[in-house]
Amino acid sequence: MALAGCPDSFLHHPYYQDKVEQTPRSQQDPAGPGLPAQSDRLANHQEDDVDLEVLVNDMNASLESLYSACSMQSDTVPLLQNGQHARSQPRASGPRSVQPQVSPRQRVQRSQPVHILAVRRLQEEDQQFRTSSLPAIPNPFPELCGPGSPPVLTPGSLPPSQAAAKQDVKVFSEDGTSKVVEILADMTARDLCQLLVYKSHCVDDNSWTLVEHHPHLGLERCLEDHELVVQVESTMASESKFLFRKNYAKYEFFKNPMNFFPEQMVTWCQQSNGSQTQLLQNFLNSSSCPEIQGFLHVKELGKKSWKKLYVCLRRSGLYCSTKGTSKEPRHLQLLADLEDSNIFSLIAGRKQYSAPTDHGLCIKPNKVRNETKELRLLCAEDEQTRTCWMTAFRLLKYGMLLYQNYRIPQQRKALLSPFSTPVRSVSENSLVAMDFSGQTGRVIENPAEAQSAALEEGHAWRKRSTRMNILGSQSPLHPSTLSTVIHRTQHWFHGRISREESHRIIKQQGLVDGLFLLRDSQSNPKAFVLTLCHHQKIKNFQILPCEDDGQTFFSLDDGNTKFSDLIQLVDFYQLNKGVLPCKLKHHCIRVAL
User: Fold this and answer.
1) Exposed (0-12), middle (13-18) or buried (19+): which is 500, by Cβ within 10 Å?
2) Which BP terms does GO give this entry (predicted)?
3) Which entry of 15, 28, 249, 277 is 20 to 30 Å from 537 by CA?
4) What is the pTM of this model?
């Protein structure tokens, strides 16, 4: 058996050759190449001419080459962060450098710290990969990594943070107070209104809205429920602000569509049967082509003069006719586009823009902030005509999306648990006349019986007040004095405001039937005024005090129906129309944020 690393003189020795020939193959030493032969094979020879020192040196050199070969195929390789072996890289071919001869003790000391060096190198590489902010994360799918990329997720390979950005928005109320709210970038106007309702402890009757107010331009509009607040704020100037107010007429079109569009103002591309359902479908269907037409006062761009022109509103934009009432394509001139614009109401059109009437509207491009030259200013003859044009603009621009905004609150209300009572205002037809004279209460359905029951209740209040006057009251306020001031705690009472201010508040919160407020009378210091909206017109009714048996009462019908205080009067007319054109349904409210 030949030994790797032994000299030729040792292999050609006569005694060694004879032993090899006489030894069977099955009894040969099973040791691998490069290992020394056992010493008992050389124990019986009588003469040994081999130089032992040369033999030892040759065997040491053989062990050195064996160690180098094994170290190349060793399973002990540096580990990466996830505990996997690094891929072996091909070594460059070339002549192997001859290592100097070292003593056996030095060889043993050098072969021990191989694993320690690998661990130290691993720690140094790990410090390079790690950062102070984000540690290296083991890769759960190492088989997906390519040969050239390490199977670890480095900080640079991680996706950016998807956290939604937040922004502070300042919202003002009607009384001048404000609140700064932190909102997300994807918060809609409806979401912000619900948040403000919760923070202000208001009644959520789905009539609150966010108003985009531009005092320097004299414009304002109600945001649609689906609009993003941050996106709208990015188009506003520094002087502009958001207002939080009621708007009962926001979706009144879907409740009473026939009251919004006079027949002479609407033309259809197909025959319409005139029903409410057909009217809604024509506006919500994008394939239909409804047109709103009529005369409007139009302000010329860059000039102070106004012209009365025949205008038509289509899905493609707002056009005016250059020749009478002709709607031929050659006679139509584009005034404004619907896509990149919004429609606003003029706050003080007569004073700021010399408008011919108080019913002005404006089509403002989204890119305009402070300039008035690009504003398309229009003016209608009455409030109903202006409401028709503004409602048609919203329907043609948003279409089905506007109807979905109207349906969402109703769907949420329908999904409420039967055990949970929805919060709603007492002015939303939730009051009925009741009779508690018997053992159980009953609803009074007969209007005449309800009126007589209200009169009896008024007489009962009168007797109670008289008895309190006779016996004396422990309250610091006398009962007669209390009845004249208790109404000041109610939301529907607005104190000393002018007639013009009360009309402005009614218009801002929506010209719907039954919208009302009470205020002090300017002509009579002891009287009050009920301001009521009916058929988009505002009417005023004076509430006069009257005395009976030394007590002060209030009446709307010259003393025929008397009430001990204004709270009782309002409660009565919420149930009964009486001398009013309609019942009191919604009250104007101002909330302090």
Assistant:
1) exposed
2) insulin receptor signaling pathway; negative regulation of insulin receptor signaling pathway; negative regulation of Wnt signaling pathway
3) 277
4) 0.62
